[in-house]
Amino acid sequence: MKELNQADLIRVGHVDSFEIVGETLQGEGVARHNGMALFIPYTFIGDRVKAKIREVKKKYGRAELLEVIEPAQERIKAPCPVFGQCGGCQLQMMDYQRQLQLKEQSLKDTFQRLGSFYDLPIDPIVGATNPWNYRNKVQMHVTWQVGKPLQIGYYRRASRQLIEYDGCLLIPPVFSRLLKLFRTFLPAVDREKKLPIKHVLIKSVRSSSDDSAEQATSLMMILVLERWKKNYQDLCGELAQKLMKEEPSLQSFYINRNKNDKGPVLGEYFPFYLGEKMLLENIESSTEKALELQVGPASFLQVNPEQSDRLYQLVLEAAQLTGNEKVLDAYCGVGSISLYVAPHCRSVTGVEEVVQAVEDGKENALRNEVGHVEFLAGKVEELLPAFVEEGVTYDVCLLDPPRKGCSETVLAAVDAMNPQRIVYVSCDPASLVRDTIFLTQRGWSIKKVTPVDLFPQTGHLECVVLMSRDEK
Ligand SMILES: C[S@@+](CC[C@H](N)C(=O)[O-])C[C@H]1O[C@@H](n2cnc3c(N)ncnc32)[C@H](O)[C@@H]1O
């Protein structure tokens, strides 16, 4: 007779009440059921819930929340009407202080579980002053086809089904206003639905250093089309003009063409624009002089400007620059960190694979009259080993990789350059721990970890980690 394992005792479709005894950064509560871990989205420790089992794997299961029977003390009514359907936010059911506690604890747990790092010097998380309306960029999907109604919104969690909603609480009200105008003007201008629109993006910059006022914001709108024809130009121009007239903060309008359905939302070709070619973002500088960064349609900027000002300040503190250091800024984007730290060191070399971002970086250095910064286009995996080969070294290495973290080639090259300090800015705790394990095995140790909440209401977490060589 087949031996029964735990999974056989749990039935898909079974409804029960569960005590939530664990929780994840992604906003899933964990219950124990017949000895197995059961993940239930939108719940957390202290909740007692009714849920339906939806999926059973060998070692764990997943259930759908049906009802909160007894709420945890910090449970609140999620302010957004589409929370739980839309895939954007995972933590709106917790009050903000509880979200911060979850993030801090989950970072500690990840360091312990994946890296056996105990007693790390982890600072309290740096929370946001305003955990709503903070995003400076939004991208929404659009359905605009003959025979179908116009739809604009985010995708449902783990699906490609569109949820219509202009009022997202993570974006500023001016974005919602502009989306409403877009809804009104698009059918009036493109009556025959000629434009093959797939996505709409809005970006904002703080166009003066007074970032509290909404009128100090300038906007860029980018429509992504599946294909481009010359005769679309008049329609796009008319649409852009109408929008710019009604919403004067819209100063730049672009068309992007992206033939691909998978991969990044933006393609490489921008066949049309109206208004400003670039916008200028004011970032809080590390000196008296404000820092201006030019932002094009494809430039990467951190999405939470208030918190990224704090993040850059933390990077500078961790780097402990005295004015004499040669600094490497790997994964530098348009050079935000390079230019921020430049007044405090001898020189900065920024490395970035997106050629346009490197061009923006060079332009930004000229605009801000920073002479001792250079930007190199190329993959970090190729350029850093080449530096090692040529005997080029740096005193401080700043690493700000995407979610997947750094490859071993990059970390080995950083180690070989023997800097005094590494400052690692991470947006994914799991890849951060993997990379710090690699470095600790080569004689580095973690001196300080500072988590920063760049993405309130969501399960994303940023942190700044200072590493230096173990003392002999
Ligand atoms: C998290 S962003 C950091 C940008 C910048 N430090 C900032 O704060 O604005 C990561 C950057 O790394 C770049 N990037 C990703 N993989 C890369 C690679 N293998 N080599 C060089 N740059 C890369 C991306 O294009 C992106 O600009």
How would you describe this structure to a colleague?
It is an enzyme of class 2 (transferase). One of its GO terms (biological process) is rRNA base methylation. Belongs to the class I-like SAM-binding methyltransferase superfamily. RNA M5U methyltransferase family. This protein is an alpha/beta fold. The chain folds into three domains: 70 residues, Nucleic acid-binding proteins (OB fold (Dihydrolipoamide Acetyltransferase, E2P), Beta Barrel), CATH 2.40.50.140; 143 residues, OB fold (Dihydrolipoamide Acetyltransferase, E2P), CATH 2.40.50; 166 residues, 3-Layer(aba) Sandwich (Rossmann fold). The strands form four sheets. A seven-stranded mixed beta sheet has the order 9-8-7-10-11-12-13, covered by helices on one side. A hairpin with a 7-residue loop joins strand 14 and strand 15. Helix 2 crosses helix 3 and helix 7 packs parallel to helix 8. The N and C termini lie far apart (60 Å). The model has no long low-confidence stretch (mean pLDDT 93). The structure holds S-adenosylmethionine (SAM).
